[in-house]
## 1
Amino acid sequence: MPNSILRLENLRKKFGGVVAVDDLNLVFNKGEVTALIGPNGAGKTTVFNLITGFVKPTAGTILFKDIRLNHKKPHAIAALGIGRTFQNVQVFSNMTVLENVMVGRHLRSRNGMLMSAFLPPMLRREENRIRASAQERLVLLGLDRYAHLPAGSLPLGNQRMLEIARALALEPTLLFLDEPASGLNARETMAMGELIHKIKSMNITVILVEHDMELVMDISDRVAVINFGRLIAQGTPKEVQLNPDVINAYLGT
Ligand SMILES: Nc1ncnc2c1ncn2[C@@H]1O[C@H](COP(=O)(O)OP(=O)(O)O)[C@@H](O)[C@H]1O
Ligand SMILES: [Mg+2]
């Protein structure tokens, strides 16, 4: 398929006796926003963890373009331009907002940030470039006025935005967002929707897990529904909404 960027082929993950992901076959299209939805415990986060290298598949294949991701480590996968956020927001609370974004960029550069005080001029210039581009990300997300505050002092909505800014600093082509609107109020959720639109317009392919169906239906080009680790439906938001298997999975009939 010429337009695909990521393919999951017979992907399977067992945790002891629990089959979290069960022979999943799924293709994600380049440039689209795809929502992965399903009841709690359906295996959505595990799919994200498999693709981004945080857990290893029991069987099956993960193909990013033509690259097999199966046995790659998270940092190697990130370096390919695959970014992510976490269901439980993970920012470095005691570091400033700006430093949090710089950490994302450093995933792609040769030297670690902590050494920066001892850097020779050439690397110091690299450090300055990273700082400038981190600052640009903050402007893009409307977080620049908080640049020098500790990340932990921001409200949850801004912390989720910051986590996305950090992921964007990696200049990803593919971005995974695990429940980006979880815990956000209506206004923050609307801002998150607008941000995801903006990210799509930057030619970044977005795959998200989200429970807020209004948001999902608003921002997604395609929706894939999983239940007990298996794909039960996929299609446009409208198609999926009307699918009886999906209605059953959610209402438990
Ligand atoms: N690291 C893990 N160890 C053991 N079981 C896990 C682990 N991660 C997830 N699971 C189990 O796998 C299943 C799917 O979980 P998860 O992927 O978090 O679902 P979702 O994100 O759809 O709510 C659940 O039964 C969960 O308890
Ligand atoms: Mg989850």
## 2
Amino acid sequence: MKNNYIQILTETIDTFGHRMQTMVAIEEMSELTKELVKHMRGRDNRDAIAEEIADVEIMLCQLRLMHGIKTTDIDALIAGKINRLKNKLEGKDSG
Ligand SMILES: [Mg+2]
């Protein structure tokens, strides 16, 4: 996420507080869930899904900031999990 975005999101957390922003994060994840369910039921809602993904990504960034989790730590976890998926696809992982 861009540096000026980080500053705005940090100010948002400072203004509204961890509890409120955690609730907003949960709400946004629920809104994405709802759009995905609508899609599974046959709705053509690509734009709504994109909007909710954007909302969730913004809230995931705030969650990282609130919990002091570095982007590089998340990147390392993602790399490990993607590698595990790769191994699974290649039949090297039994888990
Ligand atoms: Mg939303």
## 3
Amino acid sequence: MSEIIFGPVNSRRFGKSLGIDLSPALKQCNFDCVYCELKGAKPIKEMSEVVLVREIITSLKKALIKYSDIDVITLTANGEPTLYPNLRELVDEINKIKGAHKLLILSNGASIVNPKMQNILSKIDIVKLSLDCATQKCFKKIDRPYSQIDIYKIIESMKKFRKLYKGSFVIEILVVEGINDKIQEFEKLGDALKEIKPDRVDISTIDRPPAYKVNMVSTDRLKELSLCLKDLHVSIAYRKDYKGKKNSFNDSQILNLISKRPQSSEDINLSFDDDSKKRFEILLEKKLIHEESIAGTIFYILPS
Ligand code: SF4
């Protein structure tokens, strides 16, 4: 059997992460996303191969002794971790032994429609759910879900979950050329997110070979689309080789930009020229701008 515990890996968005794979032997997922890094597979309703909680906890205890400097313990899977039938028991057991580390789950979001699952997820420090589209047509095209899954119910359930959940709620949107890269689709996502009220929205595109023949979009396109998401902390996954246009801002332009939307440290690094960065640093020192860490990503905001 493949390893249940993997890493640690340095994740740009969540910090140093020790992973737990809840489906180490095979892909078990209720989606068959066009962009999946695993091979395409028919979506399933429930897991058929299940690892024992006892086995996971024994491996995790050993790993936590070896890797005491991690930031997060990440529940993930070759597939969808919320399909793991013993998730409640597992989360309770991890919470007993995790110490100062945070527990994170990376889920495709479909199980949020189940109130029992909302209850389980509410015991996890950071919940990251995917929301690639806000219309059923687009959702079916990109995520190719198990037959009865309905994006409108998912969105409504995300809104309910936000009301009961006290931890850090992150939504991830993965953009694929020709499917969810239209302004119209993003405006609908923006409307849904305004009501869901996540703490952070991560936008990215394909960066590993996908399961099906689909293409990434450019970082500039991600930036354009992100402008449809108003009043949210948006983190764009810049490509490593991205060389965007450097802009010059005076003090009031910097404050105005940040008042319109919190800027991530990467936004500042990649789009401010050297003089503007110096002005930004001075504003930060004068406390006219505040720094805030949201689930491991630094944002700059205006003081309230
Ligand atoms: S939800 Fe994740 S594992 Fe499942 S098909 Fe989509 S990308 Fe792959």
